[in-house]
Design a protein that fits this description.
2 copies of one chain form a homodimer. By secondary structure, chain A is of the alpha/beta class. Chain A has 2 domains: 65 residues, Beta Barrel (Ribosomal Protein L25, Chain P); 168 residues, 3-Layer(aba) Sandwich (Alpha/beta knot), CATH 3.40.1280. Helix content of chain A is 32%, strand content 25%. Chain A has 8 helices and 12 strands. Chain A has a 7-stranded parallel sheet with strand order 8-7-6-11-9-12-10, with helices on both faces. In chain A, α2 crosses α4 and α2 runs parallel beside α8. The longest helix of chain A is centred in the middle third of the chain and has 16 residues. Chains A and B meet through α2 and α8 of A and α2 and α8 of B.
Chain lengths: 249, 249
């Protein structure tokens, strides 16, 4: 398989474009490719091209685009993953996994039981970090689309956005079986594939009762099986289960 | 939630049993519980009990079993996960995830593109390590059943076992879309829930052509979507997708 690089400026066959600095470093320092090497460039918006390395020195790399390639297919259902920020590296892993699975966007949420505040996420430049992880995951899994990482928001704002459909709804909020009376299993829900939806997933400590009440107006509450799933595995399990039910798999 | 401990000797309400050394250490040194503390004990074979700590000192802990508890439900389909041994800690993560998802047994496999040999797994006491991880994952996810880790085998033996039904078959072997002509998507396959099955998952480098040919006689070849899934995420995604199709979720 040709080495793949992210080139947001790639538009048309024949274009000569410069790769972002991080991509140029990967090409020259890690893979040690030289002028003339065949590569593949995707623009993060679904476009993918054969390409040839031109000038390549000191982290500045130009490539000439060749023929457009057929990009890996995107899922038919555009899923926005609204994920409560997890501790340590776990949010990084969820971003990586969700991009691999094919989500259309990722909305980080600060909930009552989330440890980090919006201010701490801002100070730590976490959104920029998740954007780099999204690019890296798209490179690895063969996607030509890099889903945007939306500005982190508190849960109340996300619930309001779902109610007013500024996030795609009705959302599907995943809850522990014990957490909510009105929750249904995926089989009970019998979800037909929507055009788009928001999948809402909580933090390590789960949702608090107020959050579930607030969400119940704008979301459908869903449980998965009888075992307790780890918070950092929940997005991957929920997306795989939904894609299977929607016949994406 | 009561702290949960693995007590393989737990059989009947009223019994006084000793916990395994590792569990005793967890109870006394990590959770610092004393005599009289209420706990919950599961025996790994589906039995779960209220219990009270009796003598607790120096890694030797006795508990008295109270009433039997209703254990978390096991999946209706008994899945044996036949997983090619992955590099580094990734096999540990797959064992942890598969136990959380509810598999009935785990069969580690050495394939053509697996780095470790059976001898290296034996020397490294890897099976014992995976057994400890299975117990730890069952504790965390609320399962009362600890699935066995079967003796690691080379792929040819696993394929033969599937053909002779000494492993539950017909198996479902997951392959890259590009890897095999005869592979079907999960939607094409239209899998009705079997009573039991073996799910076969490959290593980082994928299956070689001989392995796919050999498996095609004993397995159905399955692909999932158009993106490339990481080897260490494949088991979790495949199990979640299958449980969704089988209406376990």
């Amino acid at each position: 398989m040709l080495p793949r690089f992210y080139g947001p400026d790639a538009e048309r066959p024949g274009d000569i474009i410069q790769l972002p600095e991080e991509e140029a470093g990967h090409l020259t320092r890690v893979l040690r490719l030289k002028a003339g090497a065949p590569v593949c460039v995707f623009n993060g918006r679904g476009g993918e091209f054969d390409a040839v390395v031109g000038a390549a020195a000191k982290g500045r790399v130009r490539v000439r685009l060749g023929a457009a390639r057929t990009a890996a297919p995107e899922p038919r259902v555009a899923v926005t993953l609204a994920q409560a920020v997890l501790k340590g590296d776990h949010m990084d892993e969820v971003v990586r996994d969700a991009v691999m699975m094919g989500v259309a966007a990722i909305q980080p949420i600060v909930t009552t039981r989330t440890e980090a505040s919006l201010a701490a996420l801002e100070r730590g430049r976490r959104r920029e970090r998740w954007e780099r992880i999204a690019i890296s995951s798209a490179k690895q899994c063969g996607r030509a689309t890099v889903p945007p990482i939306l500005e982190p928001r508190v849960f109340a704002d996300v619930a309001a956005a779902l109610a007013h459909l500024s996030l795609p709804g009705p959302g599907l909020m995943f809850v522990e079986p014990s957490a909510a009376n009105g929750a249904q299993t995926l089989a009970e829900l019998g979800v037909a594939p929507p055009r788009e939806t928001t999948v809402v997933i909580g933090p390590e400590g789960g949702w608090d009762a107020d959050e579930i009440d607030r969400a119940a107006a704008a979301c459908r509450l869903v449980t998965l099986g009888g075992r307790t799933l780890r918070a950092d595995a929940m997005a991957l399990v929920a997306l795989a289960a939904l894609y299977a039910v929607w016949r994406e798999f």
